[in-house]
């Protein structure tokens, strides 16, 4: 059984978390902490397989705890249980940047006592399993952050000067690519994805010769904040995709949480369309829906990129898409994944044209679609 530390200032939430974790024979709650300060003392003395923690706590919150762990070089696999408010989304993204591996949306009191309790239990245990499977992900952050005002040090777009970091040298591809026709980049990511995307999207050039569609497994209310952060860090434009968006080259469209993103053709143009089918692969949005919808698109070649994540989302969709379209599949290399699940599924089926570490994914994308 895996030993878990639970950290939350709410006695009710601590009980709920402990009851859920102890209900699974794979896990047991070894210790409980009221805030980050208590948790830090425990982490200095004891070793836990994972930590499940809140962020907003008295004396020492979750972000401060993560910074202390970094400063003291204490490694811990951390799952954040976060609120769904706008501020909660921002602070959750900060926590993921500081080393938390995954998060679960905290239910409100009504949901906790009603039908939402079952969903929360499933989501928590699934996320905890993913965190326990995870390894260390070497992620290059676009710009270091200060403790209090991260937005002030994020590198904004500029109209007249490039990113401070040089773009990677474009090398020749491993196999000839179709230099003619229209192209689209379709990315799938899950556990560890928000942090990993910050090592990929900001490195894409603003004049990329293709639109980019991203399905990152996140609940509603969090994808807008992630898109805003990626947009601020990147030369290429990034937005949360909205219904009816016409896909344009040099724009990254992040799927909205809580809906399934599809690409459909209207009046000869490729357009974003959301559907509300049930969860698939245990997630919503699901990358399989996105890849399958591309079979009827007008693109001559689709570059599929499968990044860190638990499970196998994307595999069935890409397999189906391959029967209809010319595709080039890039899988993230195992040692750079927080969880080597989704890319491993692609690799084991022999569908990957290229296996590349995280830091080279932007280069591989740019090389295969070119610039305008």
Characterization of the model:
The chain has 372 residues and is α/β, with parallel strands linked by helices. It is 31% helix and 20% strand. It has 12 helices and 14 strands. It has helices at 11-22, 36-45, 62-71, 86-97, 109-113, 116-133, 193-197, 223-233, 287-293, 315-322, 342-348, 361-369; strands spanning 2-7, 27-33, 50-53, 78-82, 102-105, 183-189, 212-216, 237-240, 251-254, 260-266, 269-275, 301-306, 326-332, 354-356. Strands 8-9-7-6-12-13-14 form a 7-stranded parallel sheet, sandwiched between helices. It has a 5-stranded parallel sheet with strand order 2-1-3-4-5, with helices on both faces. Helix 7 (193-197) links the parallel strand 6 (183-189) and strand 7 (212-216). Helix 9 packs parallel to helix 10 (315-322). The longest helix is centred in the middle third of the chain and has 18 residues, at 116-133. Mean pLDDT is 87; it is low at 137-156 and 158-173.
